[in-house]
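Long-time lurker, first post. I've been practising inverse folding by hand and with some scripts of my own, and I keep getting stuck on stretches where the structure tokens seem ambiguous. Below is the full token string for one chain I'm working on. Before anyone asks, I'm not after the true native sequence, just a reasonable design that respects the backbone. If someone could post their per-position residues I'd love to compare against what I wrote down in my notebook.
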């Protein structure tokens, strides 16, 4: 593996595990067993490194999401698969990571912000349209409004003032909000499908 890729991979793992603020360039160099001089050969400073890590991570996320969409049997299946994927992803992330990104690294935060407002928004809208066409989501759904509401939830889920990290872990918050959103959109046909995927039996 090229040294630059190794640096990005090491930094991502350390940021994910410990948060961004608490990880220094010394920590990354030590983890890789290289000198800081070698580290600075590839990245001007920590901010430059964080942007590189986030940019690469978002590209991988898009690839994983495209893979889920490609194999999903229908819109509900896609949503359920995305929910499980998000649960796994966020169970590995230190809750301080998003806060650190927003507060200390505006360039990298802008990358995430653009990803959210362009790629994720488009994905949400496509899923809503697909679900309506398949008869699994209510035909009267306002796609433009609900897709942006869903987008706004992403910021809320990471807000420590609303969900303090010492009381709420991210997988729990993600699943509760995602299920609430999904169940509010589905038709009776879609609801039965959600229950089937979740292995839930309800009395009618």
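-- Answer (accepted) --
I ran through it position by position. Result:
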């Amino acid at each position: 593996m090229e040294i630059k890729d190794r640096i990005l991979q090491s930094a991502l793992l350390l940021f994910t595990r410990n948060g961004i603020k608490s990880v220094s360039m010394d920590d990354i160099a030590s983890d890789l067993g290289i000198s800081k001089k070698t580290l600075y050969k590839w990245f001007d400073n920590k901010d430059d490194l964080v942007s590189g890590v986030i940019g690469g991570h978002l590209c991988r996320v898009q690839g994983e999401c495209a893979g889920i969409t490609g194999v999903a049997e229908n819109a509900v299946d896609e949503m359920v698969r995305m929910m499980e994927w998000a649960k796994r992803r966020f169970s590995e992330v230190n809750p301080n990571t998003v806060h650190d990104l927003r507060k200390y690294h505006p360039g990298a935060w802008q990358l995430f912000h653009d990803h959210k407002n362009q790629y994720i928004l488009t994905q949400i809208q496509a899923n809503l349209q697909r679900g309506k066409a398949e008869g699994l989501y209510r035909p009267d759904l306002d796609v433009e409004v609900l897709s942006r509401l869903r987008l706004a939830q992403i910021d809320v889920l990471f807000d420590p003032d609303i969900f303090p990290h010492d009381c709420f872990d991210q997988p729990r918050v993600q699943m509760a909000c995602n299920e609430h959103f999904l169940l509010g959109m589905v038709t009776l046909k879609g609801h039965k499908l959600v229950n089937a995927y979740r292995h839930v039996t309800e009395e009618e």
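A couple of notes from the structure itself: The chain has one domain: 3-198. The two ends are 56 Å apart (CA to CA). Happy to go over any region you disagree with.
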